[in-house]
Amino acid sequence: MIDPRTSVIYKRLKEIKKIFIIASSKGGVGKTLISILLSMGFRDLGFKTGLLDIDFTNPSCHILFNIDPSIKPTEEKGLIPPTVNGVRFMTISYFIGESGVALRGQDVDNIFREILAITRWNDTEYLIIDTPPGLGDELLDLATLIPWGEVILVTLPNRLSLTSIKRMIGIFKDQIKLIGVIENMWRQERGIRDIIINMDLKYLGYIPYVDRLDDLIEKFGLEGVYKKFFSEYLSGIISSIL
Ligand SMILES: Nc1ncnc2c1ncn2[C@@H]1O[C@H](COP(=O)(O)OP(=O)(O)OP(=O)(O)O)[C@@H](O)[C@H]1O
Ligand SMILES: [Mg+2]
């Protein structure tokens, strides 16, 4: 059956210059942090930037963004995402709060289409999508609904994470538009730049490991930590994907 939302989604998203999908098959490698940092990096370059969290079972961008629970999207022929930290930010957590939801594959697919169909990004120039870990339905849905979306894989500088990147590429290479890899939690002595390049992938850059990051964010705020530890690494990454 043809889903009428497919054409609505296309209409909603086609004006955006580029859509970046941040993914990894392994959990906890920093997709959410990197999605947030990228959105702040694009914002700092003066671009109208959007961030969409499609981790429906465990949404977490809003936690890092520290959003006020009273903030909700505005209704106007669809939903207009609130601007948080200078970024247009859409998440299911506006609707479910902190209570999790157990979702079957079909439900995930449905919520995903619904969110894409109702959200009005208006004149957003760059959109970053934070995805849940794994080779799940969300990524296949994305590949189907937004085939022009550019996938960025996140990996840690270790063998487990690299192995899972290889597996993911093996499974998805013909279905997604993979543009490169970001190394997260980089430490001087363990960089994996050459390994990535030898895998015939584009190495987009690295984000350094910052000890006790969560404590620092709590103490100095996301913006303070972003400026002190991360912003200098983003310009190189962003210029390679613009
Ligand atoms: N560069 C870094 N330096 C230090 N800690 C980091 C770094 N990147 C991420 N972390 C920490 O690692 C944890 C996981 O990060 P994050 O939630 O961004 O990963 P994720 O890939 O989105 O996880 P999930 O797969 O569960 O969605 C968090 O506690 C985060 O603060
Ligand atoms: Mg995450």
Gyration radius, in Å: 17 Å
Strand content: 15-25%
Q: Name the helix and strand elements from N-terminus to C-terminus, one letter apiece.
A: HEHEHEEEEHHEHEHEHEH
- Under CATH, the homologous superfamily reads P-loop containing nucleotide triphosphate hydrolases
Number of helices: 9
What is the overall pLDDT average? Answer: 93
Structurally, the number of domains stands at 1
CATH architecture classification: 3-Layer(aba) Sandwich
Q: What is the helix fraction of residues, given as a range? A: 40-55%
Largest sheet: 8 strands, mixed
Total strands: 10
CATH class: Alpha Beta
- Parts with pLDDT < 50 across at least 5 consecutive residues: none
- The assigned structural class equals alpha/beta
Ligand catalogue: adenosine-5'-triphosphate, magnesium ion
Could you give the distance between the termini? 36 Å
Q: Strand order within the widest sheet? A: 5-6-2-7-1-8-9-10
Features:
single chain, 242 residues, alpha/beta, Rossmann fold, eight-stranded mixed β-sheet, two-stranded antiparallel ribbon, 9 helices, globular, binds adenosine-5'-triphosphate, binds magnesium ion
Short description:
The chain has a single domain (5-241), classed as P-loop containing nucleotide triphosphate hydrolases (Rossmann fold). Helix content is 43%, strand content 20%.
